[in-house]
Every structure is written in structure tokens, then in C-alpha cells.
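Page 37, continued from 36.
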């Protein structure tokens, strides 16, 4: 789906008043429909009734029922109580109930609450009506105009202030949408007294011509420092080349500026795949806590990751690659950094981020990651008592409270895993000799235990930065233990 955001500039005060009024009625209709759906009423039962109550045409009412139904289904999928849904946002509602907020701050919250609750309008597209009947884009000599149906044969008009998107004028894209004859949906939202429009149309992507048969380029996106690590692998999974794309502009600046630069970096990534004729392998977007993969945590890291927008970047990679006919493979993100750091970083003397990108590339090809013999020798000799000693050492020596807490948690998890595998951990671990896209979660336990057994003793109380020390461990199967 292609979505374009724009601000509406009304040609008259009366037009804006009419639009705000129909947004208020439509929002009330959607809330009313939601409550009736909870009572078990059907769409057909509601449609005629709501037209009369809210003085809306059948298309607007049908769209309101559809939105209400989608909220209800989404709530059920998340396992939440549908009767406790708050239109306008629960967090805002809870803030408004706090007694210590008053004055201008309270009025601002109240305005935002009212706008979210009452300032909405959604109109689905219809190809048989050449786009959208209730909210139609018209093009004149001065640019794009949105014609909004506010009553029986009555329309309000607003100039579309679109700006730029992906190096093209948004008005050019809106013109293309309005003339292509395809259905496009329009959603209006009220923010700070201004009305914004979101135009959405389904894109028809070309046939995929660049596939993983010739190999893939795996990418690992990192929030601190801001960069994309990439690795080129051939069809057999062998390392061909690698590099990094720094992204300093994503740490500051306006949201529009960061959005512009995200597209620039995405064009660089997809251009790389296009040049080398290889598919792209990326992490699946349901990863929940990207922050734990890096060296930083806390308020500063959260701020960096928020402005960085990991998901937005990968979404753009998928969209642009599909437009170029390049295959995009999404892989399980679990333990890509750990496997990369332990196995490939010392083997090829590359950074942890590049090594993680290599693991992603290999997963994109469906290859397994077998544990090297040196590491397997460590696992064979490892027992819970040894990890208990390591735990006590961390308690005594590590000063950083946050890092100590994380390391102790990892050690406790490793101890539980070893105990769950029986009295002979080495024998129990041997059959689980790899981690792959198709492997069950049990196989990841090896890497969790291995990280604790190898990395923590070498670098208690600090992040391991000198990966070269792992090279000897990788081949010898011996790791220094804390005294």
C-alpha cells in the first residue's frame, strides 16, 4: 500500500466548518456502531438505522461500520476485553483523570483527546466510481484539490498541501492517483486544529526477477552508532564482500528531514542489491526489543532508537525492493548477533554487526549454523556448578548495576537450561548441532549457554569489543575462567 500524507487548506471558513461537522458525526457513528456490534447486531441491521441517526450517506455509514468492526476484531486478536476499548486513546484518558495536571497542560490534553475522539473521517475507494466518490481528488491549474461530500449534493473543497516524498512531488503522485482510475482511500484526521489527509492506494508490483539463486545480501540495521551493516553471500552461502552504510542524519533534525534521509539510505541498500543481482535478506519486523542487541540502554538509547525508526527503515527496504523486482526474504531475528559474534566475527575478523548481517544472509538462503568443534568442547565440559562460580564472580566484581543485572539474568537462564538437559550436559547438547530458520526454539539454547560460557568470563563487567580474543577459543576449545 502507498500512503501519502498532506495538510488541507480550506478555501473558506464555511467549508472547514462543514468538514469538521461531518468528521464529528462520522466519529460518533463509528463509536455507536462499535457498541451495537458488541451487542451482536449485524452490518445490515445497522446500516439503515445509522444513516437516519447521524445524517450520513450509506457509503460513510458503511465505512464507519467497517472501521468499528476492524477495531473489534483487532481487540479480540490481542486477547483484550472489547468492552473496555476507549476511543481517543486509553493513555490520554488516564492522563486526563490525573488531578495534578491543570492549566494549559490540561487544556492541551483535553484538546488532543477531543480531536482524537471526534476528528476522524474515513472513505473507502471504489474502482467502479473511478477512485473515490465521497472524497475525490481533483486537479486544476493550481494543483490538487480534495472535494469532500458533506451532505446531499453538497461539497466542501480544500487545497492539498502535499510537499515532497521519495524525491518526487507528492502532488505529482496525487495527480497520478487521481487519473489512474484505481480505487484510493482517504482518511481525515484533526490535529492541533488542522485537518490532515492520508491518501492510500494499493500498488501493483512488477514480477520478481532478482531471486536468491545467485545469492543474497543480508543487512543488519543498528541504532547505535547509526549504520546499516551489509554482507554479500553467494548461492552457497560463502562470504563475497561486506561493508557499512553510516546514517548520521537519523540522530537529529525534523521528522521530515529524517524521513528524507531514510529513503536515501534505502535507495543505497536496494541499489546495491540491484547492482550485484542478488536478493535481500532482512530481519522479520516483529522483533520486540532491538535495544538489547546494542551496547547501550536506558533513556539515551530509547531516544536514539525512537528517532532511528528501525521498523520504518525495513518497511521502506521491502517496498522499494518490490518496486525494483527484487526478492526480499524476511528471516527469524533470534540470536543473529550472538551467532555472528561467536562464530563469524573471529573467523573472518569482521565486526559484530557485519557478522550478524552474514548470519541473516545465510538464513535467507535457508542454511544451518553448526556450532564449531572448539565451542562444542566447551559445552561438553560445562556444568551448573561452574556457572554458579561465574555468577558469584560477577556479583563481586561488576560495578555497573545495569550490566550486572543483565549478566546475572543470562547466567541464571543458562544454569536452568543446563539443569533441564540432565546431569550430562555435553551428551544432551550434542544432538542439537545447529541453529537454522527451520530449527525449533530448543536449538537456540546452545547459543544462549555458549554466550554465557565464553563471553562473560572473558569480559565480565564490560562489553566485549576485541573480538580477536575469540579466535583462539574458537579453535582450542579453552576459555579463561575468572579467579
Amino acid at each position: 500500500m502507498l500512503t501519502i500524507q498532506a495538510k488541507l487548506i480550506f478555501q473558506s471558513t464555511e467549508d472547514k466548518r462543514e468538514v469538521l461537522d461531518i468528521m464529528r458525526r462520522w466519529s460518533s457513528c463509528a463509536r455507536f456502531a462499535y457498541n451495537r456490534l458488541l451487542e451482536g447486531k449485524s452490518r445490515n441491521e445497522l446500516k439503515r438505522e445509522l444513516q437516519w441517526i447521524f445524517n450520513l450517506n450509506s457509503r460513510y455509514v458503511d465505512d464507519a461500520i467497517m472501521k468499528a468492526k476492524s477495531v473489534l476484531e483487532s481487540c479480540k486478536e490481542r486477547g483484550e476485553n472489547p468492552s473496555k476499548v476507549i476511543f481517543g486513546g486509553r493513555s490520554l484518558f488516564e492522563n486526563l483523570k490525573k488531578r495534578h495536571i491543570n492549566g494549559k497542560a490540561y487544556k492541551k490534553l483535553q484538546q488532543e483527546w477531543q480531536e482524537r475522539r471526534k476528528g476522524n473521517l474515513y472513505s473507502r475507494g471504489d474502482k467502479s466510481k473511478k477512485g473515490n466518490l465521497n472524497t475525490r481528488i481533483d486537479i486544476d491549474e493550481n494543483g490538487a484539490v480534495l472535494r469532500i461530500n458533506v451532505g446531499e449534493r453538497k461539497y466542501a473543497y480544500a487545497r492539498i498541501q502535499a510537499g515532497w516524498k521519495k524525491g518526487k512531488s507528492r502532488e505529482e503522485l496525487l495527480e497520478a492517483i487521481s487519473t489512474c482510475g484505481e480505487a484510493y482511500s482517504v482518511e481525515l484526521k484533526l490535529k492541533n486544529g488542522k485537518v490532515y489527509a492520508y491518501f492510500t492506494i494499493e500498488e501493483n508490483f512488477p514480477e520478481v526477477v532478482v531471486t536468491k539463486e545467485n545469492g543474497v545480501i543480508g543487512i543488519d540495521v543498528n541504532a547505535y552508532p547509526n549504520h546499516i551493516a551489509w554482507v554479500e553471500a553467494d548461492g552457497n552461502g560463502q562470504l563475497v564482500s561486506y561493508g557499512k552504510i553510516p546514517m548520521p542524519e537519523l540522530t537529529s533534525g525534523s521528522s521530515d528531514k529524517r524521513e528524507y534521509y531514510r529513503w536515501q539510505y534505502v535507495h543505497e541498500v536496494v541499489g546495491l542489491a540491484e547492482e550485484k543481482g542478488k536478493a535481500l535478506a532482512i530481519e522479520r519486523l516483529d522483533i520486540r526489543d532491538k535495544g538489547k542487541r546494542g551496547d547501550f540502554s536506558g533513556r539515551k538509547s530509547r531516544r536514539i532508537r525512537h528517532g532511528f525508526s528501525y521498523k520504518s527503515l525495513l518497511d521502506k527496504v521491502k517496498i522499494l525492493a518490490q518496486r525494483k523486482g527484487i526478492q526480499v526474504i524476511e528471516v527469524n531475528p533470534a540470536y543473529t548477533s550472538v551467532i555472528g559474534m561467536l562464530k563469524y566475527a573471529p573467523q573472518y575478523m569482521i565486526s559484530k554487526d557485519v557478522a550478524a548481517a552474514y548470519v541473516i544472509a545465510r538464513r535467507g538462503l535457508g542454511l544451518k549454523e553448526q556450532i564449531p568443534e572448539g565451542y562444542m568442547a566447551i559445552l561438553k565440559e560445562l556444568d551448573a556448578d561452574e556457572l554458579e562460580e561465574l555468577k558469584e564472580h560477577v556479583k563481586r566484581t561488576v560495578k555497573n548495576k545495569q550490566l550486572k543485572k543483565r549478566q546475572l539474568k543470562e547466567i541464571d537462564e543458562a544454569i536452568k537450561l543446563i539443569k533441564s538437559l540432565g546431569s550430562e550436559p555435553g551428551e544432551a547438547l550434542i544432538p542439537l548441532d545447529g541453529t537454522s530458520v527451520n530449527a525449533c526454539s530448543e536449538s537456540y539454547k546452545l547459543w544462549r549457554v555458549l554466550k554465557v560460557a565464553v563471553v562473560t568470563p572473558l569480559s565480565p563487567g564490560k562489553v566485549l569489543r576485541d573480538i580477536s580474543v575469540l579466535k583462539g577459543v574458537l579453535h582450542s576449545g579453552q576459555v579463561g575462567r575468572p579467579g
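The CA atoms of residues 376 and 430 lie 8 Å apart. Flag for discussion at group meeting. Confidence is low (pLDDT under 50) at residues 287-301, 423-441.
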